[in-house]
Amino acid sequence: MKKRERRGFIRRVGSMLTGIAAVAVLGGVSLARAEDTAWPTRQITFVVPWPAGGETDIYARALAHEVSAQLGQPVIVENRPGATGAIGIRHVVRGKADGYTFLFANTTALVGNVVSSPEPVNFDPVKDVTPVGLVVETVYVLWAHPSIGVRTFDELLARAKDADKPQLAFGITGNGAVSELSVEQLARHYQLDLIKVPYKGSAPQVADLIAGHTQIGTANLGVALGAYKEGRLVPLLAIGKERLPELPDVPSSRELGFTEPDFTLWDGLFAPANTPPDIVAELTRVVGEAARRQSFKAIADGNGHSAIFQPGKEAAKRLKDDLAARHRFKAQLEAKK
Fold it and tell me: pLDDT-derived band of residue 37, with 50, 70 and 90 as boundaries?
């Protein structure tokens, strides 16, 4: 090759290499940007502020399984119990809002505890979390142990007011829990003198009720239906807006005139505030599909709950409305002291 031709060849090769390098650089930038915006690229965590094995934990794990299958990334459940849910909630809201850690919590932790806790919970359920969606709804039932000889709510009132018989005891499971507030509402309205027995969770509370160590208490159908069918518990009142299909002869609390607060319990998924909106939107879509799947509904039905789906804004409104109603209820209780 002649000298002049060699120089031309070198220039052409150099230009080609420069072009390739430029494309590589641009491609690298494009890939980097794609990697930055892609979600998820790694494991996701659902934090449950209650012990493993409880109702909220069961639904968190069921939802995690469905979401993982759709997103193609592992979704694990991490239990951080304590302080009626406050410990787990604070862990999430103080962490990174990067779309990889979420909160799966219920009404008791995000509403009841905020209103009823004797100590500051150190989080704001309206400002510190963004609802992804509510997925489960639960109506609790007031039950009696058969040893006290009542079959209806009216008979319970007569028995509780009988000064010649021992006081009735009922179990409570935490600040702002349905187990406490619903019975407290009834006791104050009907001027009943009852004994509170505190428990660390619903499982021991219901176990003692079935065993007769307490005489009345609340539990959902999934927990108590077996004992009811065996004659070890008597249903007296559905603590909600309507009668339950499984207990058509048992009145609802609304029928007795108790319209507020609504003690129907919900469970749902929440993101830390400031989580990128596109991630929240995508997860909301995925959670909606998961909550509508028959596999998820079957778990809810099998545990005495109802699978629902209330997305972002709808869930946020329900959270705010429930919070306001509980504050009004607390003010009413304090005014009657």
Answer: low
